[in-house]
Amino acid sequence: MFQSKVNSTKPVYSILVVVMVIALALTACGSKKGDGISPEYHGVKYTGQGDMETKVNVVIYNEDDILFLQTVKIIDDNPTVWKALQAISDNAEQGMLIEKNQKGQIIKVDDIKNDKEKHWKLFINNTIEEGDIEKVGLDENQPLTLRYSND
User: Fold this and answer.
1) H/E segment holding residue 85
2) DSSP letter at 102?
């Protein structure tokens, strides 16, 4: 009688072992060294000329609220401040409209315009940048801040 119980559980263990081996094989797919599995980027992105990828940390805030806080991916051989901001401006779901004047200065962000008392200021690496944003280059992981203030 004991013999029959052992024989009936043997197929169950065999099936269980086969299922575990298949599960382990499937989870190990693509795990070769140097073959990192990374999720697809779903954030704000600018695609221009070339294939160099640069990620920039962008914060946009007024006196009361943070309006935008995200890493922006720029795919272009010449990443600039304007390309990062253009990506935000062109993204209807996650971004907001950003406008500049002929001199390359920010004049409006999400219905907040420069006026006599307050205006948009650009900071890169926590240093104020007053140049033409189309010509100001960016490096990987550089912090870019747009702040609306009266100073």
Assistant:
1) helix 81-90
2) T
